[in-house]
Amino acid sequence: MWLAPYASHPEQTKGRRHPEPAAPTRSDFQRDRDRIVHSTAFRRLVYKTQVFLNHEGDLFRTRLTHSLEVAQLGRSVARSLGLNEDLVEAIALAHDLGHTPFGHAGQDALNACMQGHGGFEHNLQSLRVVDKLEERYLGYDGLNLSFETREGILKHCSRAHAEALEKHEPGGVGRRFIKGHQPSLEAQLCNLADEIAYNAHDIDDGVRSGLITMEQLEAVPLFVRFRDETLSEFPHAKGRRLLFDTIRRMLSQQVYDVIDATRAQIAEHLPVTADEARRCPPLVRFSASMREASTQLKRFLFKELYRHPQVNEMTAKGRRVITELFEAYVADPKAMPADYAAREDLHRAVADYIAGMTDRFAVKEHERVTGERVF
């Protein structure tokens, strides 16, 4: 695999928190990917919500299928740019490990419960999962991933949290938020691949669910452009095939746009190492016109899908489940497994336990501890 000078080269990794000898047949980033795939948190993603709650249908995206789509898109772009595909895949597969059940509604509910106790943020929780909560090795907590993978997982971080991370790990993954630097180009790519993936598959799931229609999508110039392109080639296209072909063309053009716009940024700033790329402005990006088109699409989805009354009804129930579980466990820690109940920081232990739940387990557990059936 050819790597550009500004890519993350595995032999130049900043290492692991707990030093380990090199593997004979795999790079550090390949080992990271493998550890993530075999983790408990990764398996749970199959029953965690993307937009539609897990019980609402078998064909809607989950956190697992979303992560796989991000990895696929990311690797496609990385190959064209000479970036490290293995690192991109590792970050993509791990970026949602800390997500709560019930999607962003669950995160918001848990963050509200944790006010006064450090708050809750899913990017920080994803890092916490791979650094501490996974229990697979005898020599350390977590998965002991490389710096570069951990850096990519921590997409967002408040100043206060960054300073706390820096205190416990000087020069670690929190420092860039203090210094105002960027993550690796591979991490930047995963952030954009995440956006491309969820915009496309939320159109698909939204139409499949009946909550948005092809007629409503007339308000989205990016969608109309590629729907008309499909119809010019296949005039009789309709229904699911028309939708799929339109989305396929949208995805392809966004990928090509990222490749071209990023190449132009790299040519302008000329980083010659991964660290030089970190000190540049964000280099992996859309062109200005595609950024505007993507923003218009996100506004449409926010208004017509994410705030649809039916989605609001289900997510309100999810928030209730999270909130009432949190209150029940704080009042009676013994209702949790013994290792959580025994922790010194009770509120963080409750947050960790709830964040690790799948949608269906949270619903079942809520019914057990409250005697009420919400769904």
Automatic annotation (TrEMBL):
GO biological process, one term: dGTP catabolic process
Keyword Ion transport: no
Gene3D superfamilies for the chain: Hypothetical protein af1432
Basic and acidic residues compositional bias, start-end: 11-20
Pfam families with a match to the protein in the record: HD (PF01966), HD_assoc (PF13286)
Keywords: Hydrolase
Record bears the keyword Hydrolase: yes
Domain called HD: residue spans: 63-199
InterPro entries referenced in this protein's UniProt entry, alphabetically: dGTPase, dGTPase-like, dNTPase_2, HD/PDEase_dom, HD_domain, PHydrolase_assoc_dom
Ranges for region Disordered: 1-31
CDD domains found in the cross-reference section: HDc
GO molecular function, one term: dGTPase activity
HAMAP family in alphabetical order: dGTPase_type2
Family as reported in the entry's similarity comment: Belongs to the dGTPase family. Type 2 subfamily.
Protein name: Deoxyguanosinetriphosphate triphosphohydrolase-like protein
The species this protein was found in: Aquabacterium olei
